[in-house]
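Summary for the lay section of the report: proteins are chains of building blocks that fold into shapes. Here we show the chain for PH domain-containing protein and then a coded description of the shape we predicted for it.
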Amino acid sequence: FTLGCSGWVSIQGSSDRRLTWKEKYLVLTVEGSLLVCRDAESPPDQVVSLQTCCESVAEGREILDLPRLPPGGRRDCCFALILPQNKFLLLLSDSPDDCRSSWPLCLKSLSLKH
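The coded shape description reads as follows.
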């Protein structure tokens, strides 16, 4: 069911017309879906099919107009899923190592298979 990439990240979403960062638990499935959950036990709040809905995966250094990060957030810990219709899902990992070694690589490997 899972591909080996699962864990906590911060996700930027909109709430009350303000952009906010929230901690979410992500699970990457072998079927190519990214499940966005409240915690490891909850059903997904959002499902992103990487093979049909993800146009690309961008790392922090590639995002030109990066919004304000939460306290302690760093550009080299960010990555984004570029979705259709000018939408995106901005994610922030805990460390640059997490960002370089696991999440973007797993996401890119699944999203590029279509």
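Put simply, here is one thing we learned. The mean pLDDT is 81.
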